[in-house]
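Could you join me in thinking about how sequence relates to backbone shape in a protein? We need material for that, and I hope you will provide a protein of your own picking. Once you have written the record down, we can walk along the chain together:

…
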Amino acid sequence: MYTITPFVLALGLQREKSRFTYFNGYGEKIDIPYISWLIRGNGLNVLVDSGCSAEQYASYIRPAQGALHLGGETFKDVVDVTPLEEALESEGLSPDDIDVFIQTHLDWDHSMNTPMFKKSRVVIQKTELDDHPGHELFRFAHVPEETFQQIKALNLDVVDGDTEIAPGLSVILTPGHTAGGQSVKIETKDGTYVISGLCTVLDNYFVKPEIVAEIGYDIIPPGTHLDARQAHASCKRIRDEAGENVLPPHEPSFVNLQAIG
C-alpha cells in the first residue's frame, strides 16, 4: 500500500475554465494548481510530474515582450506556492532520493523541473517522447526544446502502454490530450486512486446532473486535445479505474488537498 502527498508548487491564476472542460464553462475563471505528487510505499519514493515555477514561466514560456496571449485569452503570470525542492525537504527528501519519477506528459506545466531528477528512473511513454515537438497547433503547450533535451539525457525508462512500476503501482496509457499521456494508478489503504495524466479538473469526471441533461454525456474531455474522442475515452477509463478517487492535476480545490492513505 502507498501514500500520496500532493505538493502544490504554483498557481495559474484566472484561467478560462473551458480550456479544461471542452465546450463547457465559457467565461468562468479558475485558479489552477500545478501539482507534483509524492508516492511512498514498498520501499520506494516516487514522484509524479514536476510543475513549473514563476521564474521558469517568465524565462521560458511567457513572451519576452509581456503577457502570453493564446486563443483569445491573456494569461496572468504563474505565482509560486512552494518550490519543489522545498516541498521535498518538508518530507525529509531531496531530488536524489526519488527512486522513480513518472512524467505523465510533456506539457511545460508538468515538466519544467524534471531535469533535476538525474538519479531517478524516469518513466515516460514512447508515443509521448516520439511526438515531440509535435504538431504546430499544439507546440505552444510543449516543454521548451532546451528542457526537452535535458529530459532526454536522463535515465529514461521508455514504456509502451500500461506498465507495472511496482506491486500496487502502475501507469496506464491515457492518450488524447497528448499523444502518449499516461496516468498513475495507486493502491492505498483508502482504496484505488488514479492521478490523471490529462489536463483536467473534477468537473470533467463528475458532471452535474443538470449539465448532463443539457449535453447528453457524463464525461467531459479536456478542452485542449489532439483527439477529443480519444481523450473522452481516456477520461472514462480513469473514472472506471478509480471511481470517486480521481486526482485531476488542475483541480482548484486541491490547493487544500491533504495526504491520502
Summary: The mean pLDDT is 95. The chain has one domain: 3-256. Helices lie at 54-61, 84-90, 126-131, 145-152, 202-205, 209-215, 228-242.
